[in-house]
Amino acid sequence: MPKEHILAVDDEEDILKLVEYNLTRDGYRVTGVASGEEAVKAAAASRPDLVLLDLMLPGMDGFAVCRTLKTDARTAAVPVVILSARGEETDVVAGLELGAEDYVTKPFSPRVLVARVRAVLRRRAEQPAGEDKVLRAHGLTVDPGRREVLVSGKPVELTNTEFRLLHLLLRRPGWVFTRNQIIDAVRGTDCAVTARSVDVHVAGLRRKLGAAGKRIETIRGVGYRFEE
């Protein structure tokens, strides 16, 4: 039985061939494109199960591609894994804040890359009991099935990571989550994510949720909780 479809985006032909070879060998169907514009068109047309995205692309760069995919209803739920030579923390945080599921730096181990892709797709397929329940508190409504967040009845656009973070906190109001627990829950234990990126996502949530965002409390030296 064929596995999931992956859209690989990289303007370096050797890298694209390496990625295609290793993912195909692991059983995935792979489509390779060399530009951001091609990536956006291909993703909207075929709705792949995952996009593997380089940042340094000619014309439309990877950040613009990720932003476009995450703001288009047709592709917003498609997980994005960034594969880039840009390994500075600011680049990693920027990619994660846009909604990327993971960030892999070049040069990379093909085996590690395949493992990261496999982990992201596994987490996407897993849906714990009760995760689809609509949650309401303090003027907030979170609908996992529709991936919709309402504040006082008005929709709010969140990145995938912000959505999962809010959903995690709202499912257990009053429960304190450490930064490591948040990373494990919303991104997986095998992803290289810093505590700083968790703080960035929380700051983004507070800003977008307005008054409701104040219900996300900082527990100094520990982590965060949603006010009970």
Describe the structure.
With 228 residues, this protein is α/β, with parallel strands linked by helices. The chain folds into 2 domains: 5-125, Response regulator (Rossmann fold); 135-226, Orthogonal Bundle (Arc Repressor Mutant, subunit A). Helices cover 41% and strands 20% of the residues. It contains 8 helices and 12 strands. Strands 2-1-3-4-5 form a 5-stranded parallel β-sheet, sandwiched between helices. Strands 6-7-8-9 form a 4-stranded antiparallel β-sheet, covered by helices on one side. Helix 2 (36-46) runs parallel beside helix 3 and helix 6 crosses helix 8 (195-209).
Structural class: alpha/beta
Shape: globular
Order of helices and strands: EHEHEHEHEHEEEEHEHHEE
The CATH architecture of the largest domain is 3-Layer(aba) Sandwich
Q: What is the arithmetic mean of pLDDT?
A: 86
Number of DSSP-assigned strands? 12
Helix fraction by DSSP (H/I, runs of at least 4): 40-55%
CATH class of the largest domain: Alpha Beta
How is this structure best summarized?
With 228 residues, this protein is an alpha/beta fold.
Q: How do the helices and strands line up, and which of them pair or pack?
A:
Elements: E1 5-9, H1 13-25, E2 29-33, H2 36-46, E3 50-53, H3 62-71, E4 80-84, H4 89-97, E5 102-105, H5 110-125, E6 135-137, E7 140-143, E8 148-151, E9 154-155, H6 160-171, E10 177-178, H7 179-186, H8 195-209, E11 216-219, E12 223-226
Parallel strand pairs: 1-2, 1-3, 3-4, 4-5
Antiparallel strand pairs: 6-7, 7-8, 8-9, 10-12, 11-12
